[in-house]
Design a protein that fits this description.
931 residues; 26% strand; 14 helices; globular; 47 strands; alpha+beta
């Protein structure tokens, strides 16, 4: 550890200062020329790049006052230069000493440079080196920042630094950053805050990180030495290390009572992390562990030893006596050991090895604190709750028990006591299974290292985790973790992993029954207009630097080129064809009109791919209507259907309502089963409401769990309910299914609006144990199918097919070749980030038709609304068990199906068949006249 001795002395000095000075909080303010509050003193934003002195970016906070300032519940926040949404948040804790500094470690651009001095906080923020906005906030939640100059009194803002071309700043932006290879940082002139970033900050070539203990890396000039005179005997040069047990070192509270003190203690090495970035090992008091009673076990018998210098010289099972300094690192008690001289190996004879504590996951922080760094043999059930960061950091969120962690507003009203209880239960059941390392498998330095866990097999949300080896209960990144006793990677044999996972994937959705089936499917920005067809696009690239997906700079949102599109498309095609649905609503499909093409070009491309996979003309799309909204998003909604099963009734309709100015306008059409009549018609309305990610004013995040833009989604739900009523009258049916991505969980306001309008949300009603989306480790449904009362009566089953949200993002086409382990497969898994929902329903009870299951049975032409027959005869069936019914409007009836098993062409049944065709045609004509 750099400057360990200097840091030890200064920590003791600071500790004494903190005892003497009370901790205070700072009132919200921006300009502070009087120097009465905390300020951002330095921002180093190029860590890890070539030629850089440090491997990580950092922000240093300065305290110009005579009093230490507590920053518990505070945060550093970052917003990209052109962004107008909520910033990313990095939480802070601890104190900034009087006239001292506080070091916040952030992300990295690579592996160049040395480690920072021990930071006071570690965040995942990764600001741009050239332009953006950094905020010191006295709250832990994301701020709502204005565009332009931020004034004094802006809620939550203590200090703000806008630099480069940022849209948010104090009076004027600070200078634009230089190239990433140029070592420099933005420095404040002392601690003066004039409320102008341009005046207060300048680029300087010296980078000087300093933490709250005063530890830095730039030596100061001691000046000219003076003659010390005749030396006197100084006595003992340092205070002897105090001998303590590990339990005494740990103490019974969240922090050690020995912080900053030099101690000597003994224990047995139980885990070693000499590689992978943790740079240390754990020791535990001999003979401890086993059946621990948490009622009486109030202090941990183990501690993490932070010591890059000695981690390679110890092994699991060694008995050691260590001398070092006690520290708290982001909530983890550590013993910092500086050199091998501070490690004494003890005789193995007579040492009773510690054993894993056998218990279920404690539900409180206090109970977990009493087990910090101890060996654990987890008891009871564990369920995979999240795998979003598994492909990057090798960590898996688990939930104690057999159920996933649930979004509170999925099952309880926002802001209610019930929602709070769900949140509390989530916190009590959460633990992260890590890989004993801090390796970023997506960084250039580590992309050649096989990613942990996923290389050995799929890790799916909802799977059961079974432990076969003990783990260490660790605390890092504000989270309790299970660490293996040695670092693991994808090269570790599966048999040597401490845990395994059950297989919960299904090759097909559950049988939902019914005469017909419909589904909603989010196709994850399916754009046949690839980035390489446009100018200005920027890209996310693979480990060879090849573009994979569009990052910005143009209107495309999907694949970078044809190869990437093919990888995306094959997954979507296989998933849709495997659904078994007759009508599918599509969300997040390209609006080709934005690229000067026919509006339906993209959906036509997808339908062609679906048909190529089935080997026949199975699918068709509902064409865009003649009347279109004046303004549309670059993504749209679409409806596709199987031609041998149903046909649209007339032209589709798009709801052009001001409520959808910031979302995708719903599209509606009625469908009639092949051979059916008006009594069998059903109305389908596809939806994609405004997302939760951004909003201001009335749409600002209210902090009740519903996210931003809830007001817009409520207005959209209200407009949708009215639109449904109008469309029911237009098409002459009260059997309505409204489906799609509503961007609202099941108990949030928009869904209540639709529930109060008389619709039933079929997911919670019929399939309450499955969910369509996973966000931040919490499962819930943003995707819904809502049924009118008449439609509800016909529903036979519902299944949320968990093929997307439960799978690692590393399996997506968009993450192809990011790591040496190729996780991509041309299967249905992770075709999107939302799961499809499948609904089965029966037709009208009287004269229920059974469409042919063979080729393309007669569909009565393309009938319009009631009283309007199709203009074209339907294709005859070719292998169905039952002939399709002829058309039944006042136009020309379609030819009935009468297949003989030959696909594609008309049936051939000779004279009898011809007679049957004539009779049925006449029957259809009579029905068209008399109903």
């Amino acid at each position: 550890m750099p400057n360990l001795l200097r840091r030890t002395v200064l920590c003791a000095t600071v500790a004494a200062t903190l005892v003497a000075a009370p901790l205070v909080s700072v009132s919200t303010a921006v300009a502070d020329p009087a120097g009465t509050g905390l300020v951002i003193a330095e921002a180093y934003l190029k860590g890890g790049s070539a030629n850089q002195p440090f491997a990580n970016k950092f922000v240093e906070i300065a305290n110009p006052t005579d009093t230490a300032v507590a920053v518990d519940g505070w945060s550093i926040q970052y917003r990209a230069a052109a962004n107008t949404g909520t910033p990313s948040v990095g939480k802070l804790s601890g104190t900034v000493p009087a006239h001292g500094s506080y070091l916040v470690q952030m992300g990295s651009n690579g592996t160049n440079g040395q480690a920072l001095p021990t930071p006071d906080a570690v965040t995942g923020l990764n600001p741009s080196g050239s332009t953006g906005t950094l905020v010191l906030s006295d709250q832990a939640t994301a701020l709502t920042l204005p565009v332009g100059s931020v004034t004094t009194g802006t809620p939550g803002v203590v200090d703000l630094l806008g630099y480069g071309t940022s849209n948010t700043f104090e009076t004027a932006v600070a200078p634009t950053g230089t190239a990433n290879s140029v070592p420099d940082a933005l420095h404040r002139d002392g601690t003066v805050d004039t409320d102008s970033n341009a005046a207060d900050f300048a680029l300087g070539s010296t980078v000087t990180p300093e933490n709250s203990g005063g530890a830095g890396t730039t030596p100061t000039d001691p000046g000219t030495p003076t003659d010390p005179g005749t030396p006197t005997d100084p006595g003992t040069p340092t205070t002897p290390a105090e001998a303590v047990t590990i339990a005494q070192l740990q103490g019974t509270g969240p922090a050690s009572p020995y912080v900053g003190k030099r101690v000597v203690t003994e224990g047995v090495v139980t885990a070693v992390y000499a590689t992978g970035g943790l740079n240390g090992y754990t020791i535990q008091t001999a003979g401890t562990g086993g059946a621990v009673d948490l009622a009486t076990h109030t202090a941990s018998d183990a501690v993490f030893v932070f010591s890059a210098a000695t981690a390679g010289s110890v092994a699991i099972g060694d008995a050691v006596r260590l001398t070092g300094t006690v520290a708290e690192y982001n909530g983890l008690t550590e013993l910092e050991v500086g050199s091998t001289a501070d490690v004494e190996e003890l005789p193995a004879a007579g040492v009773v090895q510690p054993v894993p504590a056998t218990l279920t996951l404690p539900r409180t922080d206090a109970q977990r604190e009493s087990l910090e760094s101890m060996l654990i043999a987890p008891q009871g059930d564990y369920t995979v709750a999240d795998n979003y960061t598994t492909n990057q950091y090798g960590e898996i969120a688990l939930a104690a028990g057999t159920k996933r962690l649930i979004q509170p507003t999925e099952v309880a009203r926002p802001g209610s006591a019930e929602a709070a209880a769900v949140a509390a239960d989530n916190a009590a059941r959460t633990v992260v299974l890590d890989d004993g390392a801090s390796t970023n498998f997506l960084s250039a330095a580590n992309q050649s290292v096989p990613v942990s866990w996923l290389t050995q097999g799929p890790v799916t949300v909802g799977a059961a985790a079974t432990f076969s080896e003990p783990v260490v209960l660790d605390y890092r990144n504000d989270t309790w973790k299970f660490q293996p006793t040695l670092p693991i990677t994808g090269a570790t044999p599966a048999a040597d992993l401490p845990a395994s996972f059950s297989q919960v994937r299904t090759a097909a959705p559950e049988n939902v029954g019914g005469d017909l089936k419909l589904a909603g499917f989010n196709v994850l920005n399916y754009f046949p207009t690839t980035g390489d067809q446009l100018t200005g696009c920027t890209y996310y690239t693979d480990r060879d630097g090849d573009p994979v997906t569009v990052r910005g700079g143009c209107d495309a949102r999907g694949a970078a080129n044809a190869d990437d599109l093919e990888r995306q498309q094959v997954k979507i095609v296989k998933a849709i064809n495997a659904l078994g649905a007759d009508v599918v609503s599509l969300e997040e499909i390209e609006n080709s009109a934005r690229f000067g093409k026919d509006r339906d070009a993209a959906v036509g491309t997808l339908v062609s791919a679906l048909n190529a996979a089935t080997g026949q003309d199975t699918w068709a799309y509902v064409p865009s209507p003649a009347v279109l909204p004046a303004s549309e998003d670059v993504i749209r909604l679409a409806l596709i259907y199987k031609q041998d099963r149903v046909a649209p009734v007339g032209e589709s309709t798009i709801l052009d309502d001001p409520a959808f100015a910031n979302a995708r306008q719903p599209v509606a059409d009625a469908f009639r089963p092949v051979g059916g009549d008006a009594d069998d018609d059903f109305l389908v309305i596809a939806n994609h409401f405004k997302s939760k990610g951004s909003g201001s004013g009335a749409d600002a995040d209210q902090g009740d769990g519903q996210g931003a833009s809830n007001a817009s989604r409520v207005a959209q739900a209200t407009a949708l309910a009215a639109f449904s009523t109008t469309e029911q009258e237009k098409y002459g049916t009260d059997r309505v299914f409204m489906l799609g991505d509503f961007n609202a969980y099941s108990e949030e306001d928009p869904m209540v609006v639709l529930r109060d309008a008389g619709y039933t949300d079929l997911g919670p009603a019929k399939d309450p144990t499955e969910y369509s989306y996973v966000f931040s480790g919490l499962s819930g449904s943003l995707d819904h199918v809502l049924a009118s009362p008449a439609a509800l009566e016909a529903v036979t089953g519902v299944d949320i097919w968990n093929i997307n949200s439960t799978e690692s993002v590393g399996l997506e086409y968009s993450r192809y070749d990011y790591n040496v382990t190729d996780l991509y497969r041309d299967d249905v898994y992770r075709a999107s980030d939302h799961d499809p929902i499948l609904v089965g329903f029966d037709l009208a009870e009287d004269e229920t038709p059974t469409p042919g299951d063979g080729g393309t049975p007669g569909n009565g032409g393309t009938p319009g609304g009631p009283g309007h027959g199709g203009d074209h005869p339907g294709k005859p069936g070719h292998g169905g068990d039952h002939p399709g019914k002829p058309g039944h409007g006042d136009g020309k009836p379609g030819k009935p199906g009468h297949g003989d098993g030959k696909p594609g062409g008309p049936g051939h049944g000779g004279f009898v068949a011809d007679v049957v065709r004539v009779v049925l045609g006449v029957f259809g004509w009579l029905r068209g006249l008399f109903g």
